[in-house]
Amino acid sequence: MKKIIALTAILLVVLVTGCNTKKALSSINESIFVDKATPKKSTPFLLFDTTSKKGNNKKWKLVFSDEFNDKKVDTTKWTVEKTQKKRVDVMLYADENQVEEKEGNVYIYYRKSQMNDTTYMAGRFNSKGKYAPTYGFMESRMHLVKPNGFQMAFWMMPEGKGMASSTPADGTANDGAEIDIVEGNKLNAFSSGLHWDGYAKPAHKSNGALVKTPNIHDAEYHIFGFEWTPTYLKFYYDGKLVREMTDPKLIPKVAHFLYFSGSCFGKSDWVDGDVRQNDYIQKGGVAKAYVDYVRVYQTNEMK
């Protein structure tokens, strides 16, 4: 009898855990993902549109947020990566020492590794397996590191099979895409756009483009927003619409998780500078990007 009771208890725990995971990924039980420190009347930061005479008039509901006001990363929302990546001329490592939450921000650090002269460290963290919405308004207030051989990115990736879930590649982003909300790769511009149908040629497709932002590094923070609906994608910089996509083939239709990452580059036409020529890093200095908050909103039409 005791064995039957114990087995029943285990099954109940498994069922409850499974249900909670499903709710997390589908945003059904969003209350557990909303930071209590987020203002209750918070809405997406959107500037008044003088063309349409409309501003932020949608009925937004906050479904996920992190104000990063604690002393450690919330592991119910985020996973700090322990990974390595080989680039053409440098090796890149990420571990728990390159991500730190303190003083109202979460910091991503960039530094030279002690392993050898071609290895560098940069932090990365994501919500894979913990929170992955389908549609919504994703917003983050961030400080971008100056791209002297490195970059900071706020992006999304499809949950599950990834961005090449169809076999063969179907030529659309409907089954998932890399969604780059901001990649801080230039001194006076940042990149945004999509990658889909995997990364291998010839199937891989992308539509990345630079958003010109003169003097972007003069201010400590900027707000980057991304509005994702079944019919369009809109990218915002400090409340201003800077890019829009309406082609049905470019609209992802599956759940995507949130991603914040630092990266280092050697000789490249992608990022301004070369980390190997960065005197500050070479002499033991530590560069940093940081995130003040991330918030996700939805409307009834998005669920």
Helix content bin: under 10%
Which residue ranges are poorly predicted, with pLDDT under 50 across at least 5 consecutive positions? 1-24
- Terminal residue distance: 44 Å
Which sequence of SSEs, written as H and E, runs from N to C?
A: HEEEEEEEEEEEEEEEEEEHE
Can you give a write-up of this model?
Mean pLDDT is 88; it is low at 1-24. The chain has two domains: 1-33; 34-302, Jelly Rolls (Sandwich). Helix content is 10%, strand content 38%. The termini are far apart. Strand 15 (222-228) and strand 16 (233-237) form a beta hairpin. The protein contains two helices and 19 strands. By secondary structure, it is mainly β. The strands form two sheets. Strands 1, 3, 4, 5, 6, 7, 9, 15, 16, 17 and 19 form an eleven-stranded mixed beta sheet that branches. Strands 2, 8, 10, 11, 12, 13, 14 and 18 form an eight-stranded antiparallel beta sheet that branches. The chain has helices at residues 2-26, 279-282, and strands spanning 61-66, 79-80, 83-86, 91-94, 99-102, 105-112, 119-122, 124-126, 136-143, 150-158, 177-186, 189-196, 205-206, 209-212, 222-228, 233-237, 240-245, 256-264, 287-298. It is globular.
